[in-house]
Specification:
alpha/beta, D-Maltodextrin-Binding Protein, domain 2, 3 domains, five-stranded mixed beta sheet, 31% strand, binds prephenic acid, EC 4.2.1.51, Chor_mutase/pphenate_deHydtase, Prephenate dehydratase, aromatic amino acid biosynthesis
Length: 298
């Protein structure tokens, strides 16, 4: 049975989305406490694949994870899927004040969650629990676990977590407010990385991710890179600059291209970009799955 590393503990969005996309029958899911460990597990051969959240509709690219993928670990991207990050306020219902007070959440003074999830719920928190103290932890499910453990040792007392329905269920906690993200289209893009070929259903949507570093002092270099795609009518679905971390003002471009490296046009575009003096590294050429397709087949 193939093993898949995900950010734990049990009940994260990563786990929820992987169970939905990959099912739990053919795979054993293994949780790791930090994203660095999630990558390392597959590099070391403890697991076959790792699940990496890469971009969120509200919060944008998860820059730590992009940087780990590009700079630290050379694990190819094998697949991509999109999954709704439905975040809930989770805690003990004894902490809710009566509706007659005008604000049932006023008794909550501290929230635990991973910062990327807390910022997805900015408007809810500002409107309902202004000034709440927010403590960043390693994942949504870690926050839920802390709330459970604090509740068991001290009893309920004004603290809550932001996390999944799955985590609330696993810990027997209450959903104090449901689906509290700033808008309802809060999807997260996940990628599967690893060195083996996973058994996946076919998809007619293929994507290639490349990292391009421009030569220094080359006026119009980015324009020429984009032209190599444009005149071949190759569509880009994402382009983002990230620091190379080597010196201030030095960047690479993370580019998602629609289509496969096996096509005729894409390798030709890459060869043209390399001829300009750019460095090009392919991070993977892989099938993509949207949520409606996954849900229909789950
Ligand atoms: O903490 C989790 O539940 C995770 O799976 C991690 C993660 C992320 O780091 O982007 C994944 C998706 C959610 O939008 C929030 C957090």
């Amino acid at each position: 049975m193939k093993r898949i590393a995900f950010l734990g503990p049990e009940g994260t969005v990563s786990q929820e989305s992987s169970l939905c996309f990959l099912g739990d029958k053919e795979y054993e899911f293994v949780s790791y406490p930090q994203m660095y460990d999630v990558f390392t597990a597959t590099v070391n051969g403890e697991t076959d694949f790792s699940v990496i959240p890469i971009e969120n509709a509200i919060d944008g690219s998860v820059s730590l994870h992009v940087d780990l993928l590009v700079n630290e670990f050379s694990l190819p991207i094998l697949a991509e899927w999109v999954y709704p990050s439905i975040q809930n306020l989770i805690g003990y219902k004894q902490d809710l004040l009566p509706e007659s007070t005008g604000n049932p959440y006023a008794g909550i003074s501290k929230i635990y969650s991973i910062p990327v999830a807390t910022s997805q719920c900015y408007k809810f928190l500002r409107a309902n629990i202004p000034g709440v103290q927010s403590e960043g932890v390693s994942s949504t499910a870690k926050g839920v676990q802390i709330v459970k453990e604090r509740g068991e040792s001290e009893g309920p007392g004004g603290f809550a977590a932001i996390g999944t329905r799955l985590a609330a269920k696993l810990h027997g906690l209450d959903i104090l407010a449901e689906n509290i993200t700033d808008h309802q289209n809060n999807y997260t893009r996940f990628v599967l990385v690893g060195s083996q070929t996973p058994a996946l259903r076919p998809s007619d949507k293929l994507k290639t991710t490349i990292v391009v570093t421009l030569p220094e002092d080359f006026p119009g270099a980015l324009h020429q890179v984009l032209s190599a795609f444009a005149w071949r009518r190759i569509n880009l679905s994402k382009i983002e600059s990230r620091p190379t971390k080597l010196k201030l003002g030095s960047y690479y471009f993370y580019i998602d291209v629609e289509g496969s490296l096996d096509s005729v046009l894409l390798p030709a575009a890459i060869a043209e970009i390399e001829a300009l003096g750019c460095q090009v590294r392919a991070l993977g050429s892989y099938p993509c799955y949207d949520y409606d397709t996954i849900k229909a087949e789950a």
